[in-house]
Amino acid sequence: MLGTGAALSIAVGGVSIQRAGYNASFLTLAATALIAFLLLWRSVPATLPRSLASILSGSKISDRVRTSAPPNSNPFPSSVAAT
User: Fold this and answer.
1) How far apart are CA 51 and CA 69, in angstroms?
2) What per-residue confidence (pLDDT) applies to 7?
3) Domain locations in the chain?
4) Please, are residues 21 and 37 in contact by the beta-carbon 8 Å criterion?
5) Please, are residues 29 and 12 in contact by the beta-carbon 8 Å criterion?
6) Each residue of 2-41: pLDDT tens digit?
7) Phi, psi of 57, deg, nearest 5
C-alpha cells in the first residue's frame, strides 16, 4: 500500500507535465499530498503522552515535577562517596 502513492505520483506527474507543464504538475502533486495529509490528520487519533501534552499546553514546570525524596536529601547512595 505504501508503494502505491510513489508509483502513481510518477505516472500522474508525467501525464500532467506532458499536458499542462511543470508548474501544473507540481501544483497537482502538492494538492494531492495536502489532501492525503489532511485525511491522515483527521483519521489518526491524538496519542501524545501526558508529559508531552502538558508541555505543549503551557503548564508550569512546577506542576509537572514530582519528587519522592525530601528536598535536602542526598541523591547519591553512601557507596558513591566523593573522593
Assistant:
1) 20
2) 87
3) 2-60
4) no
5) yes
6) 688 788 888 888 999 999 999 999 998 899 889 989 998 8
7) -80, -10
Q: Is the dihedral angle over the CA atoms 41, 47, 50, 52 positive or is it negative?
A: negative
Q: Interhelix angle for 22-43 vs 2-20, to 10°?
A: 150
The predicted structure's pLDDT at residue 76? 65
pTM of the full structure: 0.48
Question: Would you state the cell numbers that stand for residue 18, as one nine-digit string?
Answer: 506532458
CA 1 vs. chain centroid, Å, equals: 21
Question: Percent helix, strand and coil across the chain, each rounded to 5?
Answer: 65, 0, 35
- Cα–Cα distance measured from residue 72 to residue 61, given in angstroms and rounded to the nearest whole number: 20
